[in-house]
């Protein structure tokens, strides 16, 4: 029971950590990143389709993203989707390629992005703590059903707490790294 509980806690908390990582990739830093376009969907013949499935995306320069659709008639739809998203970039269309210039961030905008990153990290911590609570409730229920000793129950809860602490530390490390990345000019 100890191993399966530990494994379950680790799996769930790792999923929460991966979700935070994925959210962080969508945050704008001072450099162009394809992660900024993650989550943008384009109307492809009436079907919402991820941008990556209708065009070739690349970062030829640190402050430029190019989008080359596989079908030139998709240029307008891609432009609309980018303008509708809240990434704050304006597309430039030359008839074949869409260019997204990534302007340098102002200090104020950097602060806003860091604040948002902190909120995302806190949301991740809350998810981890909720997982801990659910697993501890499970342990208490199992201890009543299977008559686990108090020592065994306490040991399991301590294991779950160690995994929780480790997960929260990893989220804090990710936040520190992302904060540094955002604030670097």
Shape: elongated
Radius of gyration: 22 Å
How helical, in percent, are the residues? 55-70%
What's the helix-strand series?
A: HEEEEHEEHH
Structural class computed from helices and strand pairing: alpha+beta
Distance between the termini: 50 Å
Number of helices: 4
Attribute tags:
185 residues, alpha+beta, four-stranded antiparallel sheet, two-stranded antiparallel sheet, 4 helices, 58% helix
Topology:
Layout: H1 2-25, E1 41-44, E2 47-50, E3 55-61, E4 64-69, H2 75-84, E5 91-93, E6 98-101, H3 107-146, H4 150-183
Antiparallel strand pairs: 1-2, 3-4, 4-6, 5-6
Helix pairs in contact: 1-3, 1-4, 3-4
Give a verbal description of the structure.
- The protein has 185 residues and is of the alpha+beta class.
- Helices cover 58% and strands 15% of the residues.
- The chain contains four helices and six strands.
- It has helices at residues 2-25, 75-84, 107-146, 150-183; strands at 41-44, 47-50, 55-61, 64-69, 91-93, 98-101.
- It has a four-stranded antiparallel sheet, with helices on one face.
- β1 (41-44) and β2 form a beta hairpin.
- α1 (2-25) packs parallel to α4 (150-183).
- The N and C termini lie far apart (50 Å).
- The model has no long low-confidence stretch (mean pLDDT 86).
Short summary of the structure?
The protein has 185 residues and is α+β, with helices and mostly antiparallel strands. The protein is built from four helices and six strands; from the N terminus they run αββββαββαα. The longest helix has 40 residues, at 107-146.
């Amino acid at each position: 029971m100890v191993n399966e509980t530990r494994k379950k806690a680790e799996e769930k908390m790792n999923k929460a950590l991966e979700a935070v990582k994925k959210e962080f990739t969508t945050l704008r830093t001072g450099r162009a990143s394809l992660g900024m376009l993650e989550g943008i969907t384009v109307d492809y013949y009436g079907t919402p389709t991820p941008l990556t499935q209708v065009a070739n995306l690349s970062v030829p320069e640190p402050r430029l993203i190019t989008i080359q659709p596989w079908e030139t008639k998709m240029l307008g739809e891609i432009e609309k989707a980018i303008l509708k998203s809240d990434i704050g970039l304006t597309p430039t269309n030359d008839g074949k390629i869409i260019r997204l210039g990534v302007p340098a961030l102002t200090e104020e905008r950097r602060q806003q992005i860091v604040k948002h990153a902190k909120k995302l990290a806190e949301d991740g911590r809350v998810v981890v703590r909720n997982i801990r609570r659910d697993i501890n409730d499970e342990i208490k229920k199992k201890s009543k059903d299977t008559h686990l000793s108090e020592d065994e129950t306490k040991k399991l809860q301590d294991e779950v707490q160690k995994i929780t602490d480790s997960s929260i530390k990893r989220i804090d490390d990710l936040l520190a790294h992302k904060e540094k990345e955002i604030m670097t000019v």
